[in-house]
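Support reply, case 0932

Customer input (verbatim):
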Amino acid sequence: MDSQSALQKNITTSMTAAFTSFDQLRRQLREKIFGQGALVDNLLIALLADGHLLVEGAPGLAKTTAIKELANRIEGDFHRLQFTPDLLPGDLTGTEVYRPQTGEFKFQRGPIFHNLLLADEINRAPAKVQSALLEAMGEHQVTVGQTTYTLERPFLVMATQNPIEQEGTYPLPEAQLDRFLMHISIDYPAVESEKQILALAKEQARMEYEHEPAVDNILSREQLQQAQTEVLDLHMAEAVEDYLVQLIIASRNPSAYGKDLARWVNYGASPRGTIALDRCARAHAWLQKRDYVSPEDVQAVIHNVLRHRVLLSFEAEAEGVSADDIIRELIRRVPVS
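Our regenerated output:
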């Protein structure tokens, strides 16, 4: 066997190992989280694309459970932070603490220094706290005073917001919204899933009085890094890339695709949206066991990628037009290359 064949065999073996770990992870998560298969898949896409997730849904839809179950199965630490109106930026990033024994100040790291961070009900905290996440989410670092601290990878923020109760909440700044790779909207599960949830709840209630075995890590940091590399190396034809870019351009210049779209859209997606759409489409194709990206992969993730990046006009809100309606029109009107 020549060196080139041996190299190809090693690459194939490593790809199979990485995908097998992710496939096992997905199956185990779906066994614990019924009726929210899309949330599980999008969590894995965010992990593969090295991005952050904003999840919107009513209380009790397994948002917190999903990220906790994921954290239990990958190598890394997890922290849940409840956002409240009296939260301070230092409660998130950490603060300088005076040590009387040495007469010096020492930095005490905050919750943001965990690999997986659940920012629960993020819209309950004021803008100064939400903005403390900006540098961490965008640059994977935190600056306190004159010192910059690098965050350890993987670093994933899953933020949740409750669409029902709006009293005492603050809308997220557009600059922060753009830092989220995807904005996921989840709904109530179907009848069969509801029955499965009830059965699982009964089983867990019985196990409270018994010793529950610990869950072993399925995904190591090395396997995650290998999977992320494979996702980046996935083949994307130039025609598919052109189609992806044209969808983004259409969100910025909607008048080229209809006067109605021009009336409804104030601002389209930024270049960060282009990058996010590319990374998510690649991750989606990889999870589908394909080594190439198709236009269907782009269409499968575009709603979650652009939902929070297409800013609506007053006319759209008055007419009851949502960002999802506009994205559907973009898919319908922009021709596939």
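We compared this against your earlier run and they match. Two observations from our side: The longest helix spans residues 3-32. Residues 31-188 form a domain with the Rossmann fold fold (CATH 3.40.50.300). Please reopen the case if you see a mismatch on your end.
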